[in-house]
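In this supplementary section we document a worked example of the pipeline. Step one takes a protein sequence of length 358 as its only input; no multiple sequence alignment statistics are reported here. Step two produces a three-dimensional model, which step three serialises into structure tokens for compact storage. The input and output of this example are shown verbatim.
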Amino acid sequence: MLIKLTIFLASSISEDGKRPQFGTRFLTDPRQVFQHNAWDNVEWTEEQEASAKKKVLENCQPLPSEKQEEYENRANEYWNDFYTIHENRFFKDRHWLFTEFPELCPQCSPNNVTHQKVSSTGRCVQDEERAKQGAAVSPINVNFPGATASYRILEVGCGVGNTVFPILKTNNDPELFVYCCDFSSTAVDLVKTNPEYNLGRCFAFVHDLSDVEANYPIPDGTLDVIVLIFVLSALHPIKMQASISRLARLLKPGGVMLLRDYGRYDMAQLRFKKGRCLSDNFYVRGDGTRVYFFTQEELHSMFTEAGLEKVQNLVDRRLQVNRGKQLTMYRVWIQCKYHKPLVPSPETRDGDAEHDCS
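The serialised model returned by step three reads:
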């Protein structure tokens, strides 16, 4: 019997898909906008929404097909160039992950190796049933990295480790093992040369998420958590569904997939000029890397098509402020949690039977 990962929704999550409270910084007086660097849960006016839609429509003429093929075929080159230039200086470590995704938090006690579930208060609580079941589980293949671990996390699109290393620093569970992969071999090399990289707790590898025929170094049905932070948006839209479905096969029953990515009409989308659009809501940056801007409905459709069930799907609208330049920047991100049912649906079960573990 596989270990169960039980996820409980925090009581602050509303039914209408709005994000739960993150801090207590709410803008009630527009005159105070430059008093802080950011404001939470910022509601857009109808005029603001209409202006964003107009801006997107003005710049939606797609590039010629030959240019689109070039960006697709050279995607690996563009991402390697990105990490060669920026190395580990571009992104900051994502310590906010443990607030947004308590599934990544350490266990309650350093002396207790059982794993957490999330209570209505957002704090981890002991799950003795999972621990007892985990003790009886035999690895599918004892030769894969982290085979003896009882709690396994995979980050897809790890970059230089801004998610992986905070997890390893914060989660002191001796039964934890973290896998991380990236399309860019340059990024993976930077992870491996980081002094905090420890093969006893972590395994980094190069992998193309969009290549669903490529093998993972992890058997199907062995992961507790899969993390995708601003990575799915880098894929061509026609490859997203198959990629999510392939990842879902890696999850244990009860395992959870966590995503945070760009939402429709985010500031970054509205800043694109003409000549940067590849297709609807899909753009190429000046450095050749690409980005898509999602709706909640699109992501829900992909996850459910992969046989996963919704735990959370919300929009995070945040107002960021440059107080020095007196500028306001409206960010739109989408955050999702979808888990694999403990008992798969007949459709999912039939589909999985067609695949070998890889």
